[in-house]
Write a structure and sequence with these properties.
By secondary structure, the chain is mainly beta. The protein is 0% helix and 34% strand. The protein is built from no helices and 11 strands. It has strands spanning 22-25, 38-41, 50-56, 59-63, 75-77, 80-82, 89-91, 96-98, 107-108, 110-113, 116-119. A 4-stranded antiparallel sheet has the order 2-3-4-9, with no helix packed on it. The chain is globular and about 40 Å long. Mean pLDDT is 87; it is low at 1-10.
Length: 122
């Protein structure tokens, strides 16, 4: 009788996404007053924080931080993000720069009204 063991290794991971819209007061994140700075914001709706980067005036980029390769959380690195597990890199807008991830980070639509950012579920 042969014994078969599961193979554990690299593979694509289902990325956690927002199931409900969320809101935050921009004033609670003073680092977002500066263009080019990223704040990592935790929400109960997702396991890993969202990355919010001010690009100009009231313009932002909002992405997830979970790499689809193995579910690791990315960190800010230079002009984008890097996964510490296997080295995948992403542009600031979340698009994939270099694998082994096969897709970019999830990008979220948002609106800012009177200092409150509403991030829309995907």
């Amino acid at each position: 009788m042969a014994l078969t063991l599961p193979i554990v290794g690299c593979g694509e991971h289902d990325v956690d996404t927002l199931g409900n819209d969320v809101e935050l007061l921009l004033a609670d994140y003073p680092e977002l007053e500066e263009v080019g700075v990223t704040a990592f914001v935790d929400f109960d709706e997702v396991a890993l924080p969202l990355a919010i980067t001010r690009t100009d005036g009231d313009e932002f980029i909002v992405t997830g931080t979970e790499c689809n390769h193995s579910g690791c959380g990315v960190s800010r690195s230079g002009g984008g993000f890097k996964c510490p597990c296997h080295g995948a890199t992403f542009r600031l807008d979340g698009s994939l720069r270099k694998g082994p991830a096969t897709e970019g980070l999830i990008a979220y639509d948002y609106e800012v009204v009177d200092g409150t950012m509403k991030i829309f579920a995907s």
